[in-house]
Design a protein that fits this description.
Oligomer: single chain
Distance between the termini: 42 Å
Strand order of the largest sheet: 4-3-2-1-5-8-10-11-12-13
Shape: globular
Radius of gyration: 19 Å
Structural class: alpha/beta
Length: 232
C-alpha cells in the first residue's frame, strides 16, 4: 500500500562515507614530508584534510609543487589552477615549472605517493580509471605516467557503481591504466590492502558490517580477525 512503512516493507538505510569522509580517511595515509600527486575527483579533496603536524608537498602535473587547500572567495586567483583546472592556493616555498619538467619529475620517480580515483580495481592491483568504451573522454591525463612511476599508489573511490555493481573485481573489464600497481583502497565502505592473494579488509566504515562489504566486493575478500571501524 502507498505509504506503508511496516518493517517488512521498509528499506533500511545503509550508512556510507561521503566523498569528503573518504578524502579525510585517505589523508591519514600521507607520510610526513612526502611528495604527493592527487588525481581528479575525491583525491583532490584530500588537501583539505591534511592531518595536523605534518607537511606534505602536493604536486600537480601542470607545473606546481606545494599546492595548498582550495581558496576562499578572497583568495581566488584565476591564473593559479591545478591539473583539473580548479583554482588552488600554494604553501610557503612552493614552486612553478612547465609541464615537461613536471612529467620529468613523475617519470624519474620523484613522486612518493599518488592518490587516484578509479572506475575499477582488480584484486591483483590493476586499475582502470581513464576510459569507458563508447563514451567521449578528454584523455588519460597524467594517470598512466603516475601509475608507472610513483612509489606508492592509493585509490580513493566509491565501492560500487551508481547501479550498485561492485568496482572491486577479480579482473577489470575496462581498459587498464596500470597493472599490479595499486597498494591500498579507501572506499565509502572500507579500507582495503591489495595482496597477492586478494583484497585484505583492514577497516570498515562506521556502521557498515563486514557482511555488507563482502556482498559488495566481487573480487576475493580476505577477512582476518575482528575488523575495526575507521577513525577520523
Amino acid at each position: 500500500m502507498p505509504g506503508d512503512t511496516s518493517p517488512e516493507k521498509a528499506v533500511p538505510v545503509k550508512p556510507r562515507l561521503t566523498r569528503e569522509q573518504i578524502a579525510q580517511r585517505a589523508a591519514q595515509e600521507l607520510p610526513d614530508g612526502a611528495y604527493v600527486n592527487l588525481g581528479w575527483g575525491i583525491p583532490n579533496l584530500i588537501a583539505e584534510y591534511l592531518p595536523k603536524g605534518i607537511t606534505v608537498y602536493f604536486h600537480s602535473e601542470n607545473g606546481i609543487l606545494g599546492m595548498g587547500p582550495y581558496p576562499t572567495e578572497e583568495e581566488i586567483d584565476a591564473d593559479l589552477i591545478n591539473a583539473g583546472k580548479e583554482t588552488v592556493t600554494t604553501i610557503k616555498g612552493s614552486a612553478f615549472f612547465d609541464s615537461a619538467e613536471s612529467f620529468g619529475m613523475i617519470r624519474a620517480g620523484k613522486v612518493d605517493l599518488t592518490v587516484l580515483g578509479a572506475m575499477e580495481v582488480s584484486e591483483e592491483g590493476d586499475i582502470a580509471n581513464w576510459k569507458i568504451p563508447g563514451k567521449m573522454v578528454k584523455g588519460m591525463g597524467g594517470a598512466m605516467d603516475l601509475v608507472a612511476s610513483a612509489r606508492n599508489i592509493i585509490v580513493a573511490m566509491m565501492h560500487t557503481s551508481p547501479k550498485g555493481d561492485s568496482k572491486l573485481l577479480p579482473r577489470c573489464s575496462l581498459p587498464l591504466t596500470g597493472v599490479k600497481c595499486v597498494r591500498k583502497i579507501v572506499s565509502d565502505l572500507a579500507v582495503i590492502e591489495i595482496t597477492g592473494a586478494g583484497f585484505r579488509l583492514l577497516e570498515r566504515a562506521p556502521g557498515v558490517s563486514v557482511d555488507e562489504i563482502k556482498l559488495k566486493t566481487a573480487g576475493k575478500l580476505i577477512v582476518e580477525g575482528e575488523i575495526p571501524a575507521m577513525k577520523f
